[in-house]
């Protein structure tokens, strides 16, 4: 069974770590959780939760002072670790190899054993020291994932933003997930667009990018089209299609 470590440090953005635990709680992956003392203070400041509420989402929970925990040793095998959020203090300790608590020791183990280590850093603006520490951990084998969600999926709620970052972290960890909308191509003009439900327009060709099962194929280019009376003709086969502006290579 796959085992993974989740660390929550004392940076703002506790909800990122909570969302990761909620997602993993619904899988067969066994989770090991470390919440630092600083994180416990932030939990109470940013949420209506108590640390115990978050700990209930994990299979194993450790104090940051428990240096005898199994995950403190490289001989205990896990698939890796995500620290979300990762404070600049924690980042600096990992970059310097200062393993004075279990959170940083577990991260150090992941680096030395060449396992996945994803640091969801949460700070802005960044000083030169912060940037240099990011470079150092990257060179050591970690993935630096700033808590900076994309907006091409048109997020509507804070939960959508949390899902984007949780999904990206899981991607880096090699854990399959479908918690956020991904980028893909428009079927009609082959320009990049996002995977959205029925009524979304491709911004390039202005053609609705709905997932069609029962509409007609353009026999010339096997292009999924809709037979709509008041729209333009396909220039090649005269099949009624939606009015579109296709790249020249499709004509």
Which characteristics define this entry?
single chain; 251 residues; six-stranded parallel β-sheet; two-stranded antiparallel sheet; 30% helix; disordered C terminus
Mean pLDDT: 83
Query: Strand pairing plus helix content: what structural class?
Result: alpha/beta
Number of helices: 7
The biggest sheet amounts to: 6 strands, parallel
Outline:
globular
The amount of helix comes to 25-40%
The string of secondary-structure elements, in order, is EHEHHEEHHEHEHEE
Oligomer: single chain
Give the beta-strand count. 8
Percent of sequence in beta strands = 5-15%
Q: Low-confidence spans: pLDDT under 50, at least 5 residues?
A: 194-199, 206-251
Cα distance, first to last residue? 52 Å
Identify the strand order in the major beta sheet.
3-2-1-4-5-6
Radius of gyration over all CA atoms, rounded: 23 Å
Give an overview in words:
There is one protein chain. This protein has 251 residues and is α/β, with parallel strands linked by helices. The chain has helices spanning 14-25, 37-46, 51-55, 88-96, 102-112, 128-140, 158-173, and strands at residues 3-8, 30-35, 60-62, 80-86, 116-121, 143-144, 183-185, 192-194. The strands form 2 sheets. The chain has a 6-stranded parallel beta sheet, sandwiched between helices. A two-stranded antiparallel ribbon has the order 7-8. α1 (14-25) crosses α7 and α4 (88-96) packs across α6 (128-140). The longest helix has 16 residues, at 158-173.
């Amino acid at each position: 069974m796959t085992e993974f470590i989740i660390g929550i440090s004392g940076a703002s953005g506790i909800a990122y770590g909570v969302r990761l635990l909620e997602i993993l709680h619904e899988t067969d992956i066994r989770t090991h959780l470390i919440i630092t003392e600083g994180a416990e203070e932030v939990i109470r400041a940013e949420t209506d939760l108590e640390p115990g509420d978050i700990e209930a989402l994990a299979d194993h929970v450790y104090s940051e002072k428990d240096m005898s925990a199994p995950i403190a040793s490289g001989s205990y095998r896990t698939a890796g670790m995500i620290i979300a959020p990762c404070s600049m203090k924690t980042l600096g300790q990992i970059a310097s190899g200062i393993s004075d608590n279990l959170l940083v020791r577990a991260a150090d183990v992941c680096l030395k054993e060449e396992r996945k280590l994803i640091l969801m850093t949460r700070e802005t603006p960044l000083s030169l020291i912060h940037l240099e520490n990011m470079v150092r951990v990257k060179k050591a084998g970690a993935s630096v994932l700033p808590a900076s969600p994309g907006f091409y999926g048109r997020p509507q709620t804070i939960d959508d933003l949390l899902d984007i970052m949780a999904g990206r972290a899981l991607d880096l960890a090699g854990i399959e997930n479908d918690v956020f909308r991904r980028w893909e191509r428009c079927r009609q003009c082959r320009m990049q667009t996002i995977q959205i439900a029925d009524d979304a327009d491709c911004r390039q060709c202005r053609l609705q990018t709905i997932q069609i099962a029962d509409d007609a194929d353009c026999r010339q280019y096997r292009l999924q089209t809709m037979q709509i009376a008041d729209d333009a003709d396909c220039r090649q086969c005269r099949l009624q299609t939606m009015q579109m502006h296709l790249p020249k290579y499709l004509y």
